[in-house]
Design brief:
It is a single chain. The protein has helices spanning 115-120, 123-127; strands at 7-8, 17-20, 26-34, 52-60, 68-75, 80-81, 87-88, 94-98, 109-113, 128-131. The protein is built from 2 helices and 10 strands, in the order βββββββββααβ. It starts with 6 loop residues before the first strand and ends with a strand.
């Protein structure tokens, strides 16, 4: 997995609610944990744009309801600072469901996704409606 070219503030912790931005059948997701590196001893593992988390579907079709799924975070409310000094802020926290091989489950993504996510997961660029 490639590193990010921007400074992403990690603000999403376990228990945070995400909007599912694809057409996989889920509507709302709740973060359960983070894949890979965790937080410091006794702390919560925070995550941000471009991170892969394990989430539970809390609203959606019965096939995914209350089941753990892997999600790539594509939008967050906290600002993302790019190398040229520009800051990028979205109006919601959103994620996209992926399989074990990090291939997207849905066939289209609603709303914009940042360039930083596309650099790390190039398959999301093909189904994205807009890349910022």
């Amino acid at each position: 997995m490639k590193g990010l070219s921007s400074k992403v503030t990690k603000t999403l912790i376990p228990g945070s609610v995400l909007t599912c931005a694809d057409n996989s059948g889920a509507d709302e997701l709740r973060i359960v944990g983070k894949l890979g590196k965790g937080g410091r001893h006794g702390g919560l593992a925070a995550s941000g744009v471009g991170d892969v988390v394990v989430a539970s579907v809390i609203k959606g079709t019965p096939t995914y309801l209350k089941k753990p799924v892997k999600v790539i975070i594509i939008r967050q409310r906290a600002p993302i600072r790019r190398a040229n000094g520009m800051r990028l802020v979205f109006e919601d926290n959103a994620g996209v469901m992926v399989g074990d091989d990090f291939m997207p489950v849905g066939t289209e993504i609603k709303g914009p996704i940042p360039r930083e996510v596309v650099e790390r997961f190039s398959k999301l660029a093909g189904i994205a409606s807009k890349i910022v």
